[in-house]
Amino acid sequence: MKVLISGRKYPRGQSWDEARAVCFLRYGFVCVACGGTGLDCDHVFPERFVRFYLKGKDPHDPDNLVAICKLCHGKKTGADRLLWKGPDFLGFRQRLVLYGWKPKVFNLAFDHFHLRYPR
To answer: Per residue in 26-59, is it b (16+ CB within 10 Å) or e — as a string?
Structure first.
């Protein structure tokens, strides 16, 4: 029987656990969008997007991780679809702002991956 850990069929390992802990400390254990609790650690740019489009980059880099509540995580996952259409970086950023994200939060990830975007 497989045990699901954070909805995954496999654990990501100790380095992921450490990255999550750093993420929660960085954001003060509150959601980056609404300030709520009940947190997940999520990737600004989804793990599979980074592996597909940004080959050789680490999707678990601290600048690509955010503390986010379950409700905002669901909304953000909807915005992720814009990345697979083009990718539409401007639309993705606009959707995150609409959901309450502060630009400095996602700018860290954009800058880390050297992605160009309108500010």
So the answer is: ebeeebbbeeeeebbbbbbbbeebbeeebeeebb
Evaluate if pTM is beyond 0.90: no
Q: What is the pLDDT of residues 55-70, one digit of tens each?
A: 899 899 999 999 999 9
pLDDT (tens digit per residue) in 14-30: 788 899 999 999 999 99
Q: What type of residue sits at position 20?
A: R
- CB-CB neighbours of 24 under 10 Å: 17
Domain coordinates of the chain in residue numbers?
A: 14-112
